[in-house]
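User: Continuing from earlier, I have the next pair ready.

Assistant: Great, send them over.

User: Here they are, in order.

Assistant: Folding the first of the pair now:
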Amino acid sequence: MSNTKNILAAAVVAVVVGGGFMAYDKTRGAEWVVSPQEIAEAKAQGKPGVESRPGTVTVLPIRSETADVLPMKWALYGLIAGLLVFVSLRKKQKSA
């Protein structure tokens, strides 16, 4: 394969892997300790908020401490996957 095709394949894999990790983290709510949806559900049930610990009620959403690092994690996983694909598609040189 030519170098252009290798770069294109690596870029596609990088975007797919990074997007996959992003979708996974978004579906499991990795960005929130207490999400706005949880608070809305609790208020719909007539509660003032989400009981995070016994005796503690959270009425405002709380972001996770690692929420700001998540985009870098997605980009890093994508970059590593793309690099692995690019390296694996290189032509092997025959040793003399």
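And the other member of the pair:
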Amino acid sequence: MAFGDDMIDGYPDGEEPLVFHHKNGEFRNLEVKQYRDLATGKNQPKTGLFRVLVSTKMNRMIFIAMAMCFGLVFVLNLLMNKPNEATVNGVYCNLSAISFNDTLVVTTECRISSKSKAYRRNSKPREVGISAVALNSQNDEFYIGDDKVDVNEPNTAIPSVIEYENPGLEDMEIESIRVTVESAGQSEELTCKIDNKNKVKRIK
């Protein structure tokens, strides 16, 4: 179609221009439901971490699995706190005891990790005081001895060895050891059973 003097806005003189009408949103009926819901806001993405975690069935299953894993780790950490282990002033302490030939040997190993927050805050040497007592079946206490160790090398176990000699050790019926470790005003108690290397049945 050529444009001439007898045409107005591209239409011949006397002809009405074509006008298109549509109702707002009417074309949405021809769209796929998924896209229509998304465009109208029906399927608008949910905001917030918790809402996202429970927005779908798969997300809810993953969220429940994560919660169970975190709960299991927490419970295991509580159960794995052994009575013969403790940390004082950033120093990890481990207690063990053996008896043989009327001699009781109490060993407390002290170690600090170079990766620990306590060491990064303060890398100075730490003095750890150790006080040990023995307990019999009636929980009567028997003084074993005291000791001090300087923990100055990270990742190196510094042992404290306290020996207690008594010819009547077996008659004392000692069953366990309790040690108090103290450093920089902090203190913790450790306990352990005695490993009897030459246990002999007593003659009554």
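Worth noting for the second one:
The longest strand covers residues 126-136. Residues 161 and 176 are 16 Å apart (CA to CA).
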